[in-house]
Amino acid sequence: MDTRLLAKNATALGISSILAKSIAAVLGILVTRYLGPESYGDYSTAYAYVGTFILFAELGISQLMVQEGAKDPAVLPRYFGNTLLLKTLLCVLCYLAMLVFMFPAGYNETVRLMIVFVGVAVCFNAINQSIYNYYQAVQKIYLSASFQFLTTLLIALFTIIVLVAGLGVVSITFAHLFSYIIITILLYLALRKEIKPRTDLPHLAGMVWNGLPFGVHRIFYYLFTQFSILILSLTVSNVEVGIFSAAYKLVLILIFIPSLMTSALYPILYQLGDTDRSQHQNVIEKVFKVLSAVGIAGSMLMFVLAGPLMEWLYDGKFNEAIPIFMIVAWLLALECMSFSLGDILTTTGRQMQRTLVQGLALLLLTVLTYALNPVMGIYGAAYAVIIAEVFIFFAYYYMIRKNVYKIRIWRQLPGTLISSLLMAGTAWLLIGFHPLLSASLAGIVFCLAIAILDKDFRRIGVYILKRVTGGR
Predict the structure, then answer these.
(1) Do residues 209 and 60 touch, judged by C-beta distance below 8 A?
(2) Which residues of 379-394 are buried (b: 16+ CB within 10 A; e: fewer)?
(3) pTM of the full predicted structure?
(4) Helix (H, G, I), strand (E, B) or coil at 194
(5) 203 near 68, Cβ under 8 Å?
(6) How far apart (Å, rounded) are the C-alpha atoms in residues 370 and 383?
(7) Are 86 and 59 in contact (CB under 8 A)?
C-alpha cells in the first residue's frame, strides 16, 4: 500500500471536490435565482428526466473495473476497453429512449428542446465517468479530480456568459454540452499514451453479469435522489416542481460529502475486506464517526437557519420552499450515516444486499410520494424522501449486524449530538443576524464542543492546526 499516493489522492480529491462543489453550488443558486420558479421547474424537469434515462447506460462494469483493477492491474486494458464499448452503445440507446418517451410524458416544448441537448451532454459525461473510474482503479484519483474540477469550471464559465447575456433556459444546456465535449477531447489526449484499451467480446457478457450488482445499485441510488422531481414533473405544475427543487437540490449539493471521504479509501477497503476484517471494521467506524458528525451538524444548522438562508440565497423568490427545506435538510444527516454502512456491504462482497435495500427504498419512495401527494402536495414528496432514507439506514445496520460483524456505531454519536445541540442553540440565538455570520459562529461552537468531548476529533483538530501553521 503506497501511503504517499493514498495521501496525494485524498488531498487532491478533497481540495478539487470541495472547490468544484462550491462552484457548482454558487452556480446552481445563481441559475435558480435567474430563472425563477416556473423556468426553474422546466430546468429541473429536463435534468431529472435525462438523468433517469442515462443511469441505464452504466451496468456496473465501471465499478467492477475498479474492484478488479485494484487487485490485479493486468486486467485493466481488457476491462477498460469493454467498458468504453458497452458504455457507448448503451448511451446511444438511452438517448433514443429519451427522445421517444418525452412525447407521451406530456412535457412542454421548452422541456422537450432541453432534453434534446441535455441528453447528448449527459451521454458524453457518462463516458467520461468511466475514465474517472479507470483513474480510481490505478489510484490516480488526483487526475480524475483535476478533470472533474475543470469540467465544473468550464460549465460555470459558459453558464455565466449565458446569464450575463440574458439568454433563456435552453441556452444553459448548450453551456453544459460544450463543456462536456471539451473535457471528452482532453481526456482522450491524456489517455492515449497511458493505456491501450482492448475489447474482449467473449468475456464481455461475464463482466456485465459480475458488474450487475454494482450497476443496479447505482441505478437505484441515483434514481432515488432525483425520482421525487421526476414524479412531481408528471403530477404537479412546473412552478411547484421549481419550488420543491429549489429546496431539495440545495441539500443534494452536499451529498457529495460521504462519497468524497470514501472514494480514496475504496481500493484499501476492498483489500481489507478480504484480508483483515478487524482493521476493516476499525476504519469504517472512524469514517462513520466523522461522517455522522458532519451530517448531523449540517442538517441541524440548515433546519434552524432555513428561513434566513433561503431568503438570502434566492433573493426571496422561493420563500414557499422554506418548510420543504426544513424537512429535506435531514437528508444530509441520514445519507452521511448510511453511506459508510453501505460501503461495508460493498467492500465485503455483499453488494447485492446493498442493491436490494436501495431497490426497496426506491419502491417505498415511489409509493409514499404518490400516496402523500394528494393529501400534502409537494410536502408529501419531502416527507417521503426522509422516511425512505430512515429505512435505508436501519436496513443496512440490520444486515451488517447479522451478516458481517457487530459494528459499534451508537457509541460514536453522543458527542456529536451534544455538540450539535449546542450549535443549534447558538444559531437560534443569532438568527436575526446574517445567516453566514450565524452559521459561522455556530460552527465554531460545534467544533470547540466536539473537540472537548471526543479525543478522535481533538486529534483531527490538532492535525489540521499543524497543517495550517506549517507544523509549528
Answers:
(1) no
(2) ebbbbbbbebbebbbe
(3) 0.79
(4) coil
(5) no
(6) 12
(7) yes
